[in-house]
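Run log, item B.
One chain of 190 residues. Sequence copied directly from the ordering sheet:
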Amino acid sequence: MLLKLEKEIIEFSPYNEQEKLDKNILLKLLNSEKNIFSRKNKICHFTASSWIINEEKTKVLMIYHNIYNSWSWTGGHADEETNLLKVALTEAKEETGLENIKVLLEDIFSIEILTVDGHMKNGEYVSSHLHLNITYLLEANEHDMLSIKEDENSDVCWINIEESEKISKEEKMKIIYKKLNEKLKKYLRS
């Protein structure tokens, strides 16, 4: 599976300078770092996120993330799993309560290296580190029942796509969400 992910990253066509630079770094780290799919690597490790849109392609599903105290996409740590699409789907279901989620694009939708500030989790301090993130494009029915994952989020809500990049309290994430929306528009036109 590791070879499959490496191949997918190599074949990924960057949308902008950020993705171009991050792609090169991801490939270097994938081949040089130990425990890159585990939180045992305290410097950097892979994560998977998803940009979940409704069937009408007008809204994105976001969660209110407890640690970051902000609206956020769904996603989480690979925790030894090298199939990051599987991770993205699992996290999306766990964090939203949705059971039926459709993969719109099997390929990587977006890549980003995200800085994570030191924080408390489950009563323990987690040092600042990097998330080597792979994002997938998913779809769900906005009328399906939603539920929160109490230890991670306090709300789940469909938000108009245009509002999704504004609703976050994290400036660095507003840039990512704006990019995801631009890429979504391009994807929907093709």
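Observations after the first pass:
- DSSP finds five helices and ten strands in the chain.
- Helices lie at 2-11, 17-32, 84-96, 161-167, 171-189.
Flagged for discussion on Thursday.
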